[in-house]
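pinned: reference chain
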Amino acid sequence: MLQQTQVARVLPKWVAFLDRFPTPTACAAAASGDVVRMWAGLGYNRRALHLHQTARAVTERYGGLLPDRLDALLDLPGIGPYTARAILAFAFERDVGVIDTNAARVLARAIAGRRLGGTEAQTLADRLVPDGRGWSWNQAMLDLGATICTSRAPACGRCPVATGCAWASRGRHAPDPASGSAGTSGRQSTFSGSDRQGRGRLVDALRTGPVSLEPDALAGACGWPGDPERAGRVVDGLVADGLAVVDDHRRRLSLPG
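pinned: its structure tokens
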């Protein structure tokens, strides 16, 4: 839920989600459409499907308990290097480095003083973790990047590691080491008016019930009245991703059962 979504938005959704699905087994037993409905307001709806698929895999392979090995976590649907290591550090308190966009800036600026490649960034992050302190160390790294070593206006004057910062010691001259460094996020494409916005609107409509397959109805649900061709492309994408199913007999589109 926290991937590209702010904590303030996630917290109430997380509580409600765990109330509805308290265990992986409970989530696995539900229909994927029910999981997508509970995901309302969090965006990136494919993550809900990945979470449901992971719950089923964990139930089938590991008796409903999340594995505590990196290779096993990476083999689960929708779990990449960042999420796998975040699980290991924060759920199992393992000494691995967690690199999100915030921690990646700290690594590039304060530690390396230069742009980092993917493998060397992860190697550096892992090497820095003090023995037995994986949980607290990663919390500190993520918080430092989120609150002090920010992207646009780093608060070097109140940074607790400013005296040892590689970039600050060189006068913070351009280019910024974090720019283009592994793990740092680039500029996102505009959301307003995009196909992503139309997809989100249509999924939100499907959460309340099926939508007619009539082109004008689909275009209206996407927020693009008068552009049924574009809406049709969005529908094709949702069906291909497993976020919607077509009922040809009833001529309607709905969330998966």
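why pinned: The longest helix spans residues 46-62. The first strand starts at residue 211 and ends at 212.
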